[in-house]
Design a protein that fits this description.
heterodimer; A: globular; B: mainly alpha; about 0% strand
Chain lengths: ~230, ~90
Amino acid sequence: MLARAVSADPRAVAMRWPEPRTRALARLAMLVTEAPWRLSAGLRAELARAGAALDNELVLHVVALSAYFGHLNRVADAVGVPLDYVVQHMPPEAEPATPRYERAPEVVVAGGAAAAASALARRPATAEALAAWRAYVMERDAPLSRAERAVICARVDGHLGAGPGEAAPAGDPVLLELTDVVTLAPWALGDAAFAGMRAQGADDARIFDACVTASTAGVGARIAVALAALARDA
Amino acid sequence: MTWLAITDHAASSGVLREVYDRMLQRPLPPAYRPAHGGAPGIIQAHSLDPLLIPKVFGTSTTLNGAGPLAWPERELVNAITSRLNQCLY
């Protein structure tokens, strides 16, 4: 029944599922996915009053897992990978015209990657794995240059509330537009989203690198912003 | 037909084949084993960047192979995230 409900309306599960712990986990995952800056200490207190007191380790796990799984979603959609098996409760097809996720209205925490590493200190294996992943993606010169990667990261951080607050460095509008789609509208990834880069002569490896760079930055930014937001009052 | 190129295990060679072979050695709950017997699609989706695969799925091990969330709860978190991102996979 829960699987069917999640497939049909995940927000309804997050807001109205009768069992408090399930509802709380879904609510946290929903906010990490859509608007991590909206998490707050007040929300945690509200969930606890409703019967779902979640300790810090559990909250950390939910936040990190949801942020991580968002990367898998983005890569799956960027590539267009087919399903591995028959799905019992098939959700509707993605609607490319779905409005983009909102941007964070303010900086919640500066420096997404470093902030994420600090926040994950209580989960050292995850912190170490994420750091190695991020270093692999960001500290190389091809297919994208390091400068292009920095522009993408700054753009993602700004969208999610992990930016430095000042204007992000200027970059190729085509690359920035794809960064925006990856971060705020992953359901729209595909041929249309890649048309700009293809027109510039980008091959699949370069397009994939752009998507992965943005998605990787998003993982760190979501974790950092979510955990910082949970530590402050609404 | 995919938007970006995928190289599956059968067609792979070199570094990608080595990475696939290591990934296929990892224990996998039966529910996650693809019917086609090859590497799960989400691993294949990363085939344009073979060295990225162990980095991403090494992170997965720390999140999906450990608590405090129980397996059904991890599935719930993953399903909520995927459904909101409208990711069919």
